[in-house]
Amino acid sequence: MKNIAKYLGILFLVAVFVSCDKDDDLQSKDIKRYNVETGIVHYETSISGLYVNGSGTEDLYFKKWGALEMNFEDKSETLTIINANGIEESTTTNARNAYKIDNEKIYVVDYAASVIYTKEDPLIDYMRQNNLDALDAGRETMISMGGVQLDNEKILAYDCEVWDLLGVKQWIYKGLSLKVVTSMAGITIIKEATSIKFDVSVANSYFELPNFPHKDITDL
Questions:
Q1: Is residue 178 within 8 Å of residue 158, measured between CB atoms?
Q2: Measured distance CA(173)–CA(161) in Å, rounded
Q3: Could you say which residues of the chain have pLDDT below 50?
Q4: What is the DSSP letter of 65?
Q5: How far apart are CA 107 and CA 12, in angstroms?
Q6: What number of CA atoms fall less than 13 Å from residue 139's CA on the CB side?
Q7: Quick one: which of 126, 113, 138 has its CA closest to 33?
């Protein structure tokens, strides 16, 4: 459940930056999240803290302006403690996770439990209730939570908006996070794009989910 909560939190923070044009019909089948039609992005992740360190990779695939996307994460974390005898002990865990967004639906794949958790994207309903496009909804949510927009910076030559909110700093290009730095409870997690391919062909096979039972997150 800790991983599921983490992923839903990440998806919410990412969601506040999704964008679409004013002319987009919010009732249409495909919800435009990015101002890039297709893409494949590879990220490197590092985790550092007094008692924990780790690393990982993430691969993001999307098409239809982000209406359909899939993210795969592989990570390794090492936790170091001092036991009752004063001896240092280290434990390393490896994990693979994935999430998929298909228009209004979010899928979080828990490979360890062989289950897929599902949830409706709350931002879409908020947009419709308040007659907002995704960019306006995202900015309103960000500002209401105390988010601060900083000076633009470049990630791999892409000019990004930079936002700081609740210990999370994000570099955003056309609605897409290219770098995220999270600092809280003495732990710093840095995720940064190291390879970016936009407007390329993305195979449908990348978006296939494993044959696990589905469980709505509201049931938990």
A1: yes
A2: 7
A3: 1-28, 220
A4: G
A5: 13
A6: 10
A7: 138
Rounded to an integer, what distance in angstroms lies between the CA atom of residue 147 and that of residue 183? 15
193, 26, 209: which is closest to 118 by C-alpha?
A: 209
Nearest-angstrom CA–CA distance, 53 and 91: 11
- The sheet that has 39-49: what strands, in order across it? 148-155, 158-165, 168-173, 176-184, 187-198, 39-49, 52-63, 68-82, 88-102, 105-110, 115-120, 214-216
pTM (predicted TM-score): 0.82
Q: Tell me, what's the pLDDT at 34?
A: 86
Per-residue model confidence (pLDDT) at position 136 = 64
Determine phi and psi for 14, rounding to 5 degrees. Answer: -70, -40
How far is it, in rounded angstroms, from Cα 195 to Cα 162? Answer: 19
Q: Which residues does residue 173 pair with via DSSP β-bridges, in sequence order?
A: 176
Q: Dihedrals φ, ψ of 40, to 5°?
A: -135, 120
For 99-132, what is each residue's pLDDT tens digit?
Answer: 999 988 999 999 999 999 999 877 666 666 666 5
**Is the CB of residue 5 less than 8 Å from the CB of residue 97?**
no
The answer to whether 80 touches 218, Cβ cutoff 8 Å, is no
CA angle 144–141–28, rounded 5-degree value: 155
Amino acid (1-letter code) at residue 109? V
- Strand partners of residue 108: 99, 117
